[in-house]
Amino acid sequence: HRLADRLFGPETALQTLRLGTQPVLAVGPEAPGVFRHAVAAVDFSPASVAAAEAALAMLEPGGTLALVHV
Length: 70
Fold this sequence. Notes:
By secondary structure, the protein is an alpha+beta fold. The protein is 37% helix and 27% strand. The protein is built from 3 helices and 2 strands, in the order H-H-E-H-E. A two-stranded parallel ribbon has the order 1-2. Strand 1, helix 3 and strand 2 form a beta-alpha-beta unit. It is globular, with a radius of gyration of 14 Å.
């Protein structure tokens, strides 16, 4: 799939992400299970705060969580 098709097209997984109300963790197939760095998009809604807290819980000790206001 081309990037534009994936971002703006009818791909089922992306449509589900756009319409979902739950936090989503997206990782590659080689994900180690714990992470050194994570990014969470936040708009200060209860759901985005919960997503940031969930991401923080998955970081290794001393890991970094970047919060991006959307």
